[in-house]
Amino acid sequence: MPVRHFSIARLSLVALLLAGTSAQAADGTISFTGEIVAANCTIPTAATTVTLPKVSTSAFGASGTRAGQKAFQLVLKCAAGTTGRNKVSVRFTGDDTQVDPVTGLFLLTSDSTAKDVGIAVYDANDDWVKAADNDSTPPVDIVAGDDTTVISLSAWYQSTAATVTAGTVKASGNIEIVYQ
């Protein structure tokens, strides 16, 4: 019997030691802040399609080369009485089949036949608005009511390797409206 009592005591001690190691010291804290606003802007066309021009594979000389610029605009309708903010911008998002979180490029869909290229979007200042990077376009004034709020952009093919393989290009992602 004494051995059994000793084993229970030993197990109790081990359990107590293990319980003590499961507590963790905090190395820092995190806080979140945010705001919900009554602004109401929408993109009237549910799907925006940008058709880039045909370009030669020789237009790409190294990884990161862009070619085939196509200017386009996102037109927003902002409801009359929009309050809370007076500027708006957009950012681009998507899942890991749509955007590359490292490069910020829109990825080609599986039915594309071109290789080693993605789509990059640049703002009116020719700054890259990387998808999935929480980058957003420069804010523009909200024009509420019957008028439209316009965000000017351009899309480019952008190489991901020194050599690009010819073929069809298709890519897609999401647009989020951000209020400033």
TrEMBL record:
Keyword 4Fe-4S: no
Chief location of this protein within or outside the cell: other
Signal peptide location: 1-25
Bilayer-spanning residue ranges: none
Name recorded for this polypeptide: Type 1 fimbrial protein
Top-level lineage group: Bacteria
Gene3D superfamilies assigned to the protein according to its UniProt record, in alphabetical order: Fimbrial-type adhesion domain
